[in-house]
Amino acid sequence: MHGARSLLSAAAVRGASRRMLALAQAGLLEDWTLNRDRLSAAGDFVADVVRERYPDLQPPFHARWRHFVFAGRDLWRDRVARTRWPDGASAARAAFDLAITSVLLDAGAGAQWRYQDTASGVEGAAERTGLAAARSEGLALASLRWFEQGGLSDDPHDPLRADASALERIDAGAVEGAFQSRGGNRLQGAEGRASLLNRLGAVVRSRPDLFASGDRPRPGGLFDALAREASHGEVSAARVLELVLEGLGPIWPNRPVLDGVSLGDCWLHPAFDSPHGADSPHGADGSRGADRLHDAGGPHAAERYVPLHKLSQWLTYSLLEPLEVAGFRVVDVGALTGLAEYRNGGLFVDMGVLVPRDPAAFARMHDVSDPFIVGWRSMTVALLDDIVPLVAERLGLTAEAFPLARALEGGTWAAGRVIARSMRSDGGPPFKISSDGTVF
Length: 440
Prior knowledge:
- This protein is mainly alpha-helical.
- The protein has two domains: 4-62 and 263-312 and 333-434, no CATH class; 64-229, no CATH class.
- It has helices at 10-25, 39-53, 75-81, 88-104, 135-148, 164-169, 172-178, 190-206, 208-211, 221-229, 237-248, 310-325, 342-350, 371-395, 404-423, and strands spanning 32-34, 69-70, 73-74, 115-116, 132-133, 234-236, 257-258, 261-262, 266-268, 305-307, 329-331, 354-356, 365-367, 432-434.
- It has a two-stranded antiparallel sheet.
- The longest helix has 25 residues, at 371-395.
- It is globular.
- It starts with 9 loop residues before the first helix and ends in a 6-residue tail after the last strand.
- The model is unreliable at 121-126 and 276-291 (pLDDT under 50).
């Protein structure tokens, strides 16, 4: 299959990443060189981080649920335990609603923004943590409290849900209020977050085959769609991703379109222009970046694209746990890939595995569609596959005991954050990236 839909899978992400890394290995990428000799040292560093964070060497899957845990206290699990659910499916739909909306709200917040967890008024909730949290953890906490308060629900008697109609009504003011954005605590991108939730609501309402749930469609209806497909109580992780990509693909703004299909986090790269992906590093027209978002199509047009699907795969990892809690056995988790984001990617840059050919790249502003960024992110996926066995070996674990999903959390993402803090005062990524918050 060579059409646009062939790009909407984890297998497509992994295949493109191996192709990109092979080009780097052969010295055929214009922007990057690969220093495999440094991968061993990176493996040592990640193993040390795993030992420090998880002395039992049993990190959980890398998912949004980790960001609801503060000082060992799992706020969502506490909330579930205090709620009287009609059945397990009802709890799973609520978890799907929370995971999907919380992940979509997890764009960059700004260096100064904090969420103070001291406000009252959440009926039935335990006492607030008193914490002030920032970055992803702060955004997760704020989104959880908003969800608990019924801010995404159309039913005052059932606050723990996200209804399509409520999502479509949200505006920037509602986001700013929920996230305590004001004065010197301004949250970046409130309008963009509101718009994304509006688009989510519209898509959910337009796809009853995927999101129907009683008389009010909701993101959590995806749980029912997956339950209907389950065979002998098993759900394939790869299939979860396929439905996420199919169902949520239209919500992403400014994404490439091929043959009328919105490709999501998938970008043209000039090194893939030739049939073998190596003959023309600049592309036939010499173009780069944002002007390469659309393609005229053709029998092999899909081969020119680099699928990454970072946010969709992180969301997929986050949906696996509610499925398991509901009694399904999730299989084929290894089919999913590592996440092409700046913590994992920054690890390989900061450890010297991936080296820009032009040192000035560290100072320039890059667009997410720039070949420099697309190539970096794609190679990150392949290198994550390569580093996990090295880390497992250093920990004395088998591949089965230390799969990629655990290595990300244990793990490469955490190691990327640690080394970033040691190298840059703000702990940010190694490059300046202009993003609307729906990629990273």
